[in-house]
Structures are given as structure tokens and as C-alpha cells.
Amino acid sequence: MVIHPKIRGFICTNAHPVGCAAHVQQQIDYVKQQPALNDVPKRVLVIGSSTGYGLASRINAAFGAGAKTLGVCFEKEPTEKKTGTAGWYNTAAFHKAAAKEGLYAHTINGDAFSNEIKDQVIEKIKEDFGQVDLVIYSLASPKRKDPVTGDLYSSTLKPIGQAYTTKTYNTDKDEVSEITLEPANDDEIQQTIKVMGGEDWELWMAALHDAGVLADNAKTTAYTYIGKKLTWPIYGQATIGKAKEDLDRAAAEMRTRYAGINLEAYVSSLKALVTQASSAIPVMPLYISLIYGVMKEEGTHEGCIEQTYRLLKDALYSENPKLDEAGRLFMNDWETNEKTQAKVEALWHQVTQDNFHQLADYAGYHSDFLKLFGFGIEGVDYDADVDPVVTW
Ligand code: NAD
């Protein structure tokens, strides 16, 4: 099969197996060029391990620290006629690279919100390495089925309180326009908290603890985005921000509940980056295109792999991590500091359809977007016939 990108709206509906493998390899190469992550423990569970921040965390743990990694993801397997999802191919490539270096890797593909997958993970931990010392919770999902009631909840990306009119960039049409986002109602807010809040993270940690597979002094972290003025109306102070606040509650509760084993639970505040999850959030593609340009000029731009390398080295396993005012591991200060934000705000006010390509780093945004699906990667022959069926 010859595979070219099929882009529909904010998503690409296919993926390239060779390109995804090359993208994973680029991240592995980056990690191997950095000083080893000696303080990171050797038994790591990553929930949401196949793309974006979770995949990068896993690559850092495995190739930077030599850790055994157990991953959980929800990806579509390829067939002869249809490519698998990027996360499927990324995971296959990760396994292959890990095996080459004699690194243990196992991935369970299924709904992380379900009790069945939690049970399978616990069984696997018991069988293969007894306990875990680090649990990274990096799920991004539009829906969650409650494991007890079976009710299905959906998250929404809407402001709270009042409608919000702002600029946005439509990646599909290459168009800067204005949109008005209607405010969420209470039910939508509660459903978003149910999907993207801390409840499932807590259920995971309770299941691991109760099964005796959480080691003494283990750490866990979930990821959040705390932006600034430009993104607050649609992120920080919107439905998704409410869900993310619930992570703070969950982290505090878990620190108390599992004080007996000295569990350290943190929310990590990461920078805005192009991932499958962020491309779906209105306003974010425009904001990200502008902030990429500013941060590249300042020499502070990072991708998922660089952010999570620093997270592990300078925050999660550092004696003196930088914390924000809410006690979160503060990794997005290079993005949210006043000087950088002032620059992006000035651009935000100027940007129009006509000057978008001059003011924003659209090329950077678009290239990162394509890379998520294994496209646009140097050295990959996109006209070659490739077998879409890849297993791990
Ligand atoms: P992503 O879409 O790249 O990754 C999501 C992962 O979750 C994938 O591995 C996917 O397979 C998995 N997943 C989704 N639903 C699942 C399910 N039901 N069961 C099992 N696995 C499932 O997203 P991302 O941007 O890397 O986001 C990860 C976390 O980082 C999220 O909490 C997000 O809010 C946070 N974050 C993202 C950004 C950003 O700009 N992208 C910034 C800060 C924080």
C-alpha cells in the first residue's frame, strides 16, 4: 500500500508505519544523546503510552533510564486495507527498538478506564516485575465509560459562564477566522470532569495499591496545561480546566491516602504542543503556531521528548523541583513567563488571514502535525509500497 496523509478537519485518519517508526527513532536518538536518567526508577507504568507526552515519557524512561516499561493505550490495529493508528505503529516501533537493546517492554491495548484493563495490568506487573515505582498518567480521551455504572460520559471544550468570541485557525482550510464558543451547561462541565478529571487516575492508583503492586516511595504524575490569558477562556477557565483542577484535588488526596507507602503524587504542568489531543482544541492551533515562532526565536522551544526528559531529570527526580503556586511540577515556565507571553499577545492582536504565514510558525506547526502520523519525515520514501500490517 502507498500511504499519503488523509486529513479531515483537525485529524489525519491514516498513519504511515515506516514514518511513525522513524519518528519514534528520532525521539530515542534524542534521549540517547542526553546524560542518562540515573535517578529514574526501573519499573515504570505509563497509562496513555502510545502518542504525545505519554510515548515521550516512556521513551525517556526506557532509553534514558533503562527502565522496564509497561504501557497502556487504546489504538486501532491495521488490516490489509486500512492503516492502523499512529499510536499502534509507534508502539510497534518502540517494542522493536526496546527488544534490540534488551529492554523489557509490554503494552496492553484496551480501554484504560475499564476494570478489565486495570486487572490485566496488575496481573502483568505481578508476573513480570512484582511492583512499579513510577506511574505516569497521560490519557487524553473524548469519552469515558464508567466502570461501575456503564454510563458513557463525553468531554466538551467550551468556556464557562459566558460565550467567548476569539480568533482561531482552521488547519484544514488554512484560514484565520473568528469563532464564538457557547458556554457549557452544568452537565457538560460535570461530564468533562468525569472524563478528564482525577477520578480514573485515583482508581488506577487504588487498584495498584490494593493489589500490592505499588512500591514503597513510588511516584505518580498526571499531566496538565495551565496556560495564560490567551488560552484561559478556552482552556484554564473552561470545561477542560475544570477537569484539570480535579487532578489537583486527586493528587492531594492520594498523597494523604497513601502516606503509609510514602507515595508522591504530582500534577505536572507541561507546555502547549502539537499532539492529537491539542489539535482538537479550538484556539490552540493558532496559539501554538504563534508560540512556536516566539519560543524558537528565544531558543526555548521543546517537543514532547525534550519536555519529558527535563520533567524526569529536573522535576520528578530532582531534590529541588520548580513548583508553581499550586504545588504542581512547573515545566511550562519558558512558555508562560511574562516576557514570552507579551510577545505572543502582541502577535495575537495583529494576526489576520493575510499575515498569518508571516507572523506564525505555521510551517513548524504543520510539520509537527504531520509527524504525529508518520508523515513528512526526512529519509522516508512516501511513494514506496509498504505493508500496513505491523504487529508487536
Ligand atoms: P495524545 O492524544 O497524544 O495521547 C493520548 C494517549 O491516551 C494515547 O496513548 C492514547 O492511546 C491514550 N488513550 C486515550 N484514550 C484511552 C483509553 N480509553 N484507554 C487507554 N488509552 C487511551 O495526547 P497528549 O497531548 O499527549 O496528552 C496527554 C496528557 O498531557 C493529557 O492529560 C493532556 O491534557 C496533557 N497535556 C497536553 C498538552 C498539549 O499541548 N498537548 C499540554 C499539557 C498537558
From TrEMBL:
Occurrences of domain Enoyl reductase FAD binding (ranges): 323-386
Annotated NAD(+) binding lies at 48-53, 74-75, 111-112, 139-140, 244, 273-275
For this protein, the record's InterPro entries field holds: Eno_Rdtase_FAD-bd_dom (IPR024906), Enoyl-CoA_Rdtase_cat_dom (IPR024910), FabV-like_NADH_b (IPR050048), Trans-2-enoyl-CoA_reductase (IPR010758)
Enzyme kind, highest EC tier: oxidoreductase
Q: Indicate the segments forming the Trans-2-enoyl-CoA reductase catalytic domain, all copies.
A: 82-317
Q: Which reaction does it catalyse?
A: a 2,3-saturated acyl-CoA + NAD(+) = a (2E)-enoyl-CoA + NADH + H(+); a 2,3-saturated acyl-[ACP] + NAD(+) = a (2E)-enoyl-[ACP] + NADH + H(+)
Q: Which HAMAP family match?
A: FabV_reductase (MF_01838)
Report the function annotation for this chain: Involved in the final reduction of the elongation cycle of fatty acid synthesis (FAS II). Catalyzes the reduction of a carbon-carbon double bond in an enoyl moiety that is covalently linked to an acyl carrier protein (ACP).
The identity of this protein, by name, is Enoyl-[acyl-carrier-protein] reductase [NADH]
